[in-house]
UniProtKB/TrEMBL annotation:
Native organism: Streptomyces parvus
Alphabetized InterPro entries for the sequence: Creatinase/aminopeptidase-like, Pept_M24, Pept_M24_MAP, Pept_M24A_MAP1
GO terms of molecular function: initiator methionyl aminopeptidase activity; metal ion binding; metalloaminopeptidase activity
UniProt-annotated binding residues for substrate: H83, H181
Positions bound to a divalent metal cation 1: D100, D111, E239
Name of protein: Methionine aminopeptidase
Main EC class the enzyme belongs to: hydrolase
Function recorded in the entry: Removes the N-terminal methionine from nascent proteins. The N-terminal methionine is often cleaved when the second residue in the primary sequence is small and uncharged (Met-Ala-, Cys, Gly, Pro, Ser, Thr, or Val). Requires deformylation of the N(alpha)-formylated initiator methionine before it can be hydrolyzed.
Taxonomy of the source species: Bacteria, Bacillati, Actinomycetota, Actinomycetes, Kitasatosporales
Amino acid sequence: MVHIKTDTQIEAMREAGRVVARILTRAREVAAVGVTPRRLDEAAREVLSQAGAASPFLNYKPHFAPTPFPAVICVSVNDAVVHGIPSAEPLRDGDLVSVDAGALLDGWAGDSAISFTVGEARPEDTRLIATANEALAAGIGAAVAGNRIGDIAHAIGTVCRDAGYGILEGYGGHGIGRSMHEDPSVPNEGRPGRGMVLRHGMVLAIEPMLLAGGLDEFRHDPDGWTLRTTDGSRASHAEHTVAITNDGPRVLTAL
């Protein structure tokens, strides 16, 4: 079931989104060569505590997971695409880091992700990250009342495929509201003019996940959470929580 939010509820979700934006900003500030992903998780916990917010990630256990997720953010490095558990291994010069964060505030959720490099960036990684952001922007641009879910999917997929990148198979965006994952699903590739009609009050997490090697396949780490490219190529993840309004898409997780 798709839950339509009132304008007041969208405003409440915006407050949760601001907390998520602060988490990602802080994680980016803390991240550096020699810093561990666990330190980024600690910084995220500090932001949540200061805001009086909770994490929808911590102890989350979907059907596929062998254990509850043990952190408040996902930190995926290099060939890890998404769902990386923050580790104690220090970041190295040139690492490509994706951070996915969420917050629950006053009963409403926000969800967003960014990718960046620490130290000296490889040109190919800079292009990959820029394309993920471009795909996200294209998806948001298509999130217009009267359009359909397929229009978002087509906009994202076109940017990714034209750049020669793979798209994480079977994964995409989702509705969001009282919980982090709601209906509908939002694929990262599809046909325009197909799928559910977008209405004022729908709120979606739009999130392209790009694989540099051009393949769509992935493999699971032994931890049961981390998804990695099968060819060892790097990956990039970008995400915003977006409200569909009659005045156009509204990004709720922007700083």
